[in-house]
Amino acid sequence: MAPRSRPLSPHLQVYRFTLTMTMSIVHRITGIANYAGTVLLVAWLAAAALGEGPHAAMNAFFGSWFGQLVLFGYTWSLIHHMLGGLRHFVWDFIIAFDPAGREAIVRVHLALSILLTLGLWALFVWM
């Protein structure tokens, strides 16, 4: 019996890399980052429960430039992941599912995630 010729599965060499594909990957990465950020949130709450010393140490870490960078990234990750979920919810209704619509909604998603993060930090941290 001769081996059957089966079609090959499409791979990255076949598809043009698009912003939609990138955002799909970033959505997965932000989902993982949200777990790490939530662990930091739990550590801060545990430090507050343990007393003034551990709480002051955690506040010193989150008050440092590196801690602020981590918190900023966590804020962006939460907002970006939430907006990605809303984008998929919109797509569930077959809205903006054509190539131009997909590209437009992804661009709006990216811009909104940055603007909302900057807005929240401007309102609650930098003022």
What would your notes on this structure say?
This protein is mostly helical. It has a single domain (21-124), classed as Up-down Bundle (3 helical TM bundles of succinate and fumarate reductases). Helices cover 77% and strands 0% of the residues. The chain has four helices and no strands. α1 packs antiparallel against α2 (52-63) and α3 runs antiparallel to α4. The longest helix is centred in the first third of the chain and has 32 residues, at 19-50. The protein is elongated and about 75 Å long. The chain starts with 18 loop residues before the first helix and ends with a helix. The mean pLDDT is 91.
CATH class: Mainly Alpha
* Relative strand content: under 5%
- CATH fold call: 3 helical TM bundles of succinate and fumarate reductases
The structure class reads mainly alpha
| Spans of at least 5 consecutive residues with low confidence | none
Please tally the helical runs, counting DSSP H or I stretches of 4 or more residues: 4
H-E string: HHHH
Characterize the biggest β-sheet: none
Rough outline: elongated
Helix percentage? over 70%
Q: Tell me the span between the first and last alpha carbons.
A: 76 Å
Number of E strands: 0
- Estimated radius of gyration: 21 Å
For CATH, the homologous superfamily is named as Fumarate reductase/succinate dehydrogenase, transmembrane subunit
